[in-house]
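Priority: medium. Attachment 1 of 2:
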């Protein structure tokens, strides 16, 4: 049920009236009254949010938490799939390649150094050249 409205008079400069009429059109309002009412409600929310400092941080915190949670879920799924594929590859490789523990230890040290040095951007061509020279 719609609220009863009360009539009021406001005094505005001609420039403000022109701006008001432009805003009525731009905001798809049916009348100046509708636009003024929407503007007052918006302004009231703005003033309250500045007075009650908790509103904006809570809204932002909620929004950011949702974004982080979504990103976290996606990254977790991709990392899980990657770990499964890596485990398969390591098992297949271990079954087919004979390598002693000392060579494996040295290779692990080299790989850690390479990954740290490239920030995880490993280039297969460079590894192939290293292994075959």
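Attachment 2 of 2:
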């Amino acid at each position: 049920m719609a609220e009863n409205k009360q009539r009021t008079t406001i005094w505005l400069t001609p420039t403000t009236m022109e701006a008001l009429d432009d805003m009525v059109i731009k905001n798809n309002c049916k009348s100046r009254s509708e636009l003024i009412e929407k503007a007052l409600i918006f302004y009231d929310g703005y003033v309250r949010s500045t007075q009650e400092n908790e509103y904006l941080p809570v809204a932002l915190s909620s929004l950011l938490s949702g974004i982080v949670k979504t990103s976290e879920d996606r990254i977790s799924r991709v990392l899980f799939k990657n770990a499964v594929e890596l485990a398969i590859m390591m098992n297949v490789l271990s079954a087919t390649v004979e390598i002693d523990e000392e060579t494996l230890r040295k290779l692990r040290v080299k790989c850690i150094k390479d990954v740290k040095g490239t920030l995880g951007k490993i280039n297969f061509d460079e590894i192939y050249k290293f292994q075959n020279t």
